Amino acid sequence: MKYITYLALFFSVVFYAQEDPVKQDSTAIHYMYIEGDSVPVTSVELKEVLVLPNLKFKDRKARIRYIILRRKTLKVYPYAKLAAERLESLQERLDGLERKRDKKRYAKIIQRYIEDEFSAELKKLTKTEGQILVKLIHRQTGETTFNLIKELRSGWRAFWFNSTARLFDISLKKEFSPIDEEEDYLIEDILQRAFQNEQLERQEPAFEIDFYESLNKWSKVDSATNSKD
């Protein structure tokens, strides 16, 4: 069985820093206290915080679309986050096993567990919620749902799942790309606001997402649309 490749999740470590009150120029020395010891540093790296713009909609229809999309995104994001955590645990456990037979046996146990855990809940999702979930799974794992099923089960099973999903207009091969699709940009905007408001627990995406680049692109598109109107 092939290993599933993941990008590392980034964890921030909190340090308490104290600035020398005497020196205030560009060469001022800062001190970080780590396990009781003060360590002099010339700069302090701060965690990046997105400054989100005020929400503006070109018309009532756009506002309603955003509200509906927000409700659906908040609903399915926990499933995508949980899926990423389960798959990461699976990979860590597989890395710790040496025999191929043990790897295969453990993978089957986790596969059944994931399917049993999600199947009942996923059946309750609407078509659009299902497609948003597929996108968010790609955001959180770096892999499409199709590829994950292919790795965990088989190529035929992945094809069958994808063909079945297409009957409901859901593509398991769908990727999350805020720069290419406006809906994905809106989903990312919804997530970032929910993270800052602590409505959702933050989980970093498996790949870099330039929020401001997407914001700039779709703001210009909206402006051009409004000018034509």
UniProtKB/TrEMBL annotation:
Lineage top rank: taxon: Bacteria
The species this protein was found in = Winogradskyella sediminis
Enumerate the InterPro entries for this protein. Answer: DUF4294
The protein depicted here goes by the name DUF4294 domain-containing protein
Keywords annotated in UniProt? Coiled coil
Indicate the segments annotated as coiled coil, or none if absent. 80-107
UniProt-listed Pfam families = DUF4294 (PF14127)
